[in-house]
Amino acid sequence: MLVLVAPGQGAQTPGFLTPWLELPGVRGALEAWSDAVQLDLIRYGTEGDADEIRDTAVAQPLLVAAGLASAAMLFDDPADLPRKLGAIAGHSVGELTAAALAEVLPAEETLRLVRARGLAMAEAAAVTETGMSALLGGDPEVSVAHLEKLGLTPANVNGAGQIVAAGTLEQLAALNEDKPEGVRKVVPLKVAGAFHTHHMVPAVDALAKAAESLTPADPKVTYVSNKDGRAVTSGSEVVARLVGQVANPVRWDLCMETFKELGVTALIEVCPGGTLTGLAKRALPGVQTLALKTPDDLDAARALIAATAAPAADAAGA
Known about the structure:
The chain is an alpha/beta fold. The protein contains 14 helices and ten strands. It folds into two domains: about 1-125 and about 195-315, Malonyl-Coenzyme A Acyl Carrier Protein, domain 2; about 130-190, Malonyl-CoA ACP transacylase, ACP-binding (Alpha-Beta Plaits), CATH 3.30.70. Strand 4 and strand 5 form a beta hairpin.
C-alpha cells in the first residue's frame, strides 16, 4: 500500500522551485495560484532568500503550491491519484496540501485558505517573540515532562524519537542550556512562531471565518489526520480539524501508527521532500520511501507507484 505525504513549514529552502518550472504546466499553475492569493509564488520559490521564505505568510502557500505542483507530475491522469494511493496525510500546513490532493477542496480554494492561515498565524506570532526547536533523541515521556517544566509545549510529536518544542525565545534558550536527559541536540527550526500552541489561538478564529464559505467534499482517498492519527471520512470534519489544528499539537507519530495499521509498504513525500521520509525510515522499517526534491526524482517515484499499485490493479482485474 502506498501513502503520499506532504511536508510542513521549515522544509523550504531558497530556490527549491526553480527546476520544477521547466516541467509542462507547472509555471502556468503557479501563476494562477499566485493571482488567487496575491503573492508571487514563483519569485519567492526561485529568488526569495532564506529570511523571505521563512515568513509564515509566504512559506505556507509556497509549500502547499510546491506540493500540489509536484504531486501533479506523478500521475498521467489526475484520477489515478485516489485509485493508486492507499492513504494521504500532511504534516502541519502539509495537511492542506493533502486535503487538496484528496479533493476535499479545489486547489485555488485551498491556496486561499492557506494564505489566510499564514497571515493569521504570522499576526499571532508577532504578539510575542516565539519559535520552535526539534529535540533529537531521548525518551518522549521524559522529554515531554521536561518541556512542561520549562513552560514549553510539545507542539509536534513526530515519532522516531523526535519532539518539537514550542514557546517563547527565552524558554527555548533555557531548553538549549538545560536539555532533557538523553537528548543529543536541540535544533532551532526555520519557522517564525510557536505554532500548534496556545500562542496561535487568535489565528483559529480568523481561519474559522475564512472557512465559512467553503463547501468541502468528502476525501476520495483515506485521509489521516494530525490531530489523533485517525482516518477522517467527512470533508466538513477535515476542514474543522484544519481550523483547530493551528493551536493544537501535531501527532505525526500517531499518523505513522495508522500507516502501519493500514499496511503501508511504500511512502512518497511531495516537494520539498526529505523531512517526513527521514522520520519514516526510522519509524517504519521495511517501508520503501522516496522524497521528491527535484524533478530528477520523478522517474523513481513513478516506478514506485507502478510497482506498489500493480498488485491491487491485478487483483481488481482478476
